[in-house]
Design goal:
The structure holds 2 protein chains of 2 kinds. Chain A is mainly beta. Chain A is about 0% helix and about 50% strand. In chain A, a hairpin with a 2-residue loop joins strand 7 and strand 8. Chain B is globular, with a radius of gyration of 13 Å. The chains are: A mainly beta, B mainly beta. Chains A and B meet through strand 5 and strand 10 of A and strand 5 and strand 10 of B.
């Protein structure tokens, strides 16, 4: 199975600040078709996860441009700028390139 | 708007089975995979498998072969997951999620296995 390693495990940020979350995969996430199926999700307290970013850098419908995804191969980053209270929760990366699909263990974003 | 409405919480006995549902609305049910994901308390996310309601095709995480069975009813736009031979390790919240990117999620079903 592809192991997804997220760092850091937790992150403290001031409102209005910027943070980056790293996600590394144990194997390349480039699919045979040339696409890279790396997504980012946010799970707010008491809620279901929600899709933020798909295929590395594509924002899902309605997602603020304060969220940006980048990376390639095995190394990926989610950046959140001008952090707002509604951004707090646990962020997960996930891969859909290889079966079984797998997720990182999560990064908890908290207020400083 | 897309909605995935899951069935209510379940308290079940070890060794039994449970079937949970996910009713879809706001999109063409038969045109998108429906995925199922497990989340144990305090733990991350684990992909169980998908079903394509259009033709009933399924794909499972090998870890859940024999544990989970995915089905879908096109007439009611509802996906189902049956979990069998339940143990305490199956106590978790189970989510359904639409499409290849998991772009919409159900609210989750908490399954508690206890005697």
């Amino acid at each position: 199975d592809v192991v997804m390693t997220q760092t850091p495990v937790s992150l403290s940020v001031s409102l209005g600040g910027q943070v980056s979350i790293s996600c590394r995969s144990s194997q390349s996430l480039v699919h045979n078709n040339g696409n890279t199926y790396l997504s980012w999700y946010l799970q707010k307290p008491g809620q279901s996860p929600q899709l933020l970013i798909y295929k590395v850098s594509n924002r899902f419908s309605g997602i603020s441009d304060r969220f940006s995804g980048s990376g390639s191969g095995t190394d990926f980053t989610l950046k959140i700028s001008r952090v707002e209270p509604d951004d707090l929760g646990v962020y997960y990366c996930g891969q859909g390139t290889q079966y079984p699909y797998t997720f990182g263990a999560g990064t908890k974003l908290e207020l400083k | 708007q897309v909605q995935l409405q899951q069935s209510g919480a379940e308290l079940v006995k070890p060794g039994s089975s449970v079937k949970i549902s996910c009713k879809a609305s706001g999109y063409t049910f038969t045109s998108y995979d429906m995925h199922w994901i497990k989340q144990q308390p305090g733990n991350g996310l684990e992909w169980i498998g998908w079903i394509y309601p259009g033709n009933g095709n399924t794909k499972y995480n090998q870890k859940f072969n024999g544990k989970a069975t995915l089905t879908a009813d096109k007439s009611s736009s509802t996906a189902y997951m049956q979990l069998s031979s339940l143990t305490s390790e199956d106590s978790a919240v189970y989510f359904c999620a639409k499409g290849y990117y998991f772009d919409y999620w159900g609210q989750g079903v908490m399954v508690t296995v206890s005697s």
